[in-house]
UniProtKB/TrEMBL annotation:
The keyword Amino-acid biosynthesis applies. Its EC number is 1.1.1.25. Keywords: Amino-acid biosynthesis, Aromatic amino acid biosynthesis, Oxidoreductase. NCBIfam families: PRK00258.1-3 (NF001311). The keyword Oxidoreductase applies. It comes from the Bacteria. It comes from Schaalia cardiffensis F0333. GO terms for cellular component: cytosol. This is Shikimate dehydrogenase. One of its GO terms (molecular function) is shikimate 3-dehydrogenase (NADP+) activity.
Length: 277
């Protein structure tokens, strides 16, 4: 019986099961197929990976396992290796391969949001946060033509350093400490694209002081609740919003392609997940 799962911790509220099941239905699949949630710590990860059987289509990998899973894989896709983060595991012919579809999700969500406004090429960007998703955001900005970005964070070193990711990706970053609110606000106001990878509420006070223009685009990866402090600031200024939920849908769409070899209906996935969010 074919199965797939999302792994990580906490995993209780993950929307991956709804997304993948909606995708399977759009393909006429899913009868007897299972998509599960497996609460998994970094310590328990090797045992789970070793338990993968021939019926497994793949795993959606979330925190804190996106970096910890890399040494357990046989092959790591070049983009995932450059970013230093794997969010998709695909077993095939006895080999375990890791991919990163977060980059695809970010790029697609931003392009989808900017296209109706007819906005031209973006030149300046700011990333809020410096974790695994921020590294994916850095790669996504590179695909959007931005090779030098400002990153605002409390710290930049440690496991999965965004500095190391920038070096592997061949892009430049300008570091701004999160405590320097004026510098962070100035960077946001000067950016064509802002990507926030921060937890809910962290940017709320900062959002109250920034003035946003209609030509600026925000992607806040927080998708529940839909309206964050940054989203309110963008709405007030009439800016463009690329929704965190759309990023989630696009990255899952790419995961389904990798797991099934088929192209699911994106609209069905969006409809399915919005009924549950």
């Amino acid at each position: 019986m074919p199965w797939a799962a999302v792994i990580g911790s906490p995993i209780k509220h993950s929307l991956s099961p709804q997304l993948h099941r909606a995708a399977w239905r759009s393909l006429g699949l899913g009868e007897g197929w299972r998509y599960e949630r497996y609460e998994t710590s970094v310590e328990a990860l090797p045992q789970l990976v070793n338990s993968i059987d021939a019926d497994c289509l793949g795993l959606s990998v979330t925190m804190p396992c996106k970096q910890a899973i890399i040494p357990l894989l046989d092959i790591v896709d070049p983009m995932a290796a450059a970013v230093g983060s794997v969010n998709t595991l695909i077993p095939s012919q006895g080999l375990l391969t890791g991919f990163n579809t977060d980059v695809h999700g970010i790029v697609s969500a931003i392009r989808e949001a900017r296209s109706p406004r007819g906005l031209g090429e973006a030149r300046r960007a700011t990333i809020l946060g410096a974790g695994a998703t921020a590294a994916s955001a850095l790669a996504a900005l590179g695909e959007l033509g931005i090779t030098s970005s400002t990153v605002a964070a409390r710290r930049f070193a440690g496991p999965g350093s965004i500095l190391a990711a920038a070096s592997r990706l061949g892009v430049e970053i300008h570091q701004v400490m999160w405590a320097d609110e004026e510098a962070v606000a100035e960077s946001i106001e000067a950016s064509d694209i802002v990507i926030s990878t921060l937890p809910l509420g962290v940017a709320d006070e900062l959002a109250k002081r920034v003035k946003i223009q209609e030509s600026q685009t925000l992607l806040d990866v927080v998708y529940a609740p839909r309206e964050t402090g940054l989203v309110r600031a963008w709405n007030l200024g009439g800016g463009v919003i690329a929704w965190g939920l759309d990023m989630l849908v696009h990255q899952a769409h790419q995961q389904v392609r990798l797991m099934t070899g088929r192209d699911p209906d994106l609209a069905s996935m969006k409809a399915g997940v919005r009924q549950c969010s």
